[in-house]
Amino acid sequence: MSVDGEAVRVRSEADEPGWEVDPDDDWGVAVIATVGRQLKLRREAVGMRAAEFGTAVGYGEDLVYKVESGKRIPRPEYLDRADEVLGAGGLLAAMKDDVAKVRYPKKVRALAELEAKAVEIGVYETSNIHGLLQTPEYARALLECWQPAYTPQDLERRVAARMSRRSIFERSPAPALGFVLEEATLRRKVGGTMVRRQQFERLLEVGRLNNVTLQLMPMDSGPHAGMSGRIELLKFGDGTAVGRSDGAFNSRPVEDLKQLRILELRYGTIRAQALPPGESLALIEQLLGEK
């Protein structure tokens, strides 16, 4: 199929896994319904039929109707193309940020918002490589083993959501990021050889950033302050903070200063007991060489 002499590949529903709207996400449903109405009103205002518009933007007529009825989340390029075809002057394209957030589960969205505001993040991870450090392939392999199993669509939504959080590394000014990973998280065979190789390369890349401190807790270490589970601390520009630990306060997020001091004490002790950053990167390079 072609438009103005250019070949256009029309997307069908089979091309669009993971772009359904979560019916339990009230905010997301409202956003996509509003975007859909705007798209339909602008299409009708210029006198285009759904099939004609679908051809112009590279989508099948069925998907056009589902986007306009608020049942499907439009891709960023869909909104860009629609803005151009309908002469919206950037108004439709400007909706991309809110639309992108709808695709991600509510809990992930809330976490991403906290991370986006944090000026300092400290993490100790025991069971797997932390989400901010994961490659898409590693995240997918990790999520594929969860039970009950995710549907293919939900799996892709969760991978995309996790990858969206990596924008924290592009922020300016850059936040201070500290990660302590148990060595076992790197030795666990998540995915195949190439998946693990790419993941180690990603760790080395991130670990060499000026605003990142990456440390490993060696497997031959003795008992340490992190034996009770993972810890995450986020500090904000206004002096407030929030923290969570698997082994404290029923695993609930805490903001109380006394409780935060306990988590900070544990996290600080863990960092002191872990390998220094240079030795940690050297160990990752060693593991990469074994692949």
Question: Key features?
Answer:
291 residues; elongated; alpha/beta; 7 strands; 5-stranded mixed sheet
Radius of gyration over all CA atoms, rounded: 22 Å
Overall outline? elongated
Structural class: alpha/beta
Largest sheet: 5 strands, mixed
How far apart are the termini?
Answer: 45 Å
Helix content: 40-55%
- Placed side by side, the strands forming the largest sheet appear as 5-4-3-6-7
Number of strands: 7
Instruction: Quote the beta fraction.
Output: 5-15%
Number of helices: 12
Extract low-pLDDT stretches: 1-8
Order of helices and strands: EEHHHHHHEHHEHHEEEHH
Mean pLDDT: 90
Account of the 3D structure:
It is a single chain. This protein is 47% helix and 12% strand. It is an alpha/beta fold and 291 residues long. Strands 5-4-3-6-7 form a five-stranded mixed β-sheet, sandwiched between helices. A hairpin with a 4-residue loop joins strand 6 (231-236) and strand 7. The radius of gyration is 22 Å and the shape is elongated. 30% of the residues are buried.
Write a concise synopsis of the structure shown.
47% of the residues lie in helices and 12% in strands.
Tell me the layout of helices and strands.
Elements: E1 2-3, E2 6-7, H1 26-45, H2 50-57, H3 61-68, H4 76-86, H5 96-102, H6 106-117, E3 118-125, H7 136-143, H8 152-164, E4 176-182, H9 183-187, H10 193-207, E5 212-217, E6 231-236, E7 241-245, H11 257-273, H12 277-289
Parallel strand pairs: 3-4, 4-5
Antiparallel strand pairs: 1-2, 3-6, 6-7
Helix pairs in contact: 1-5, 2-3, 7-8, 10-12
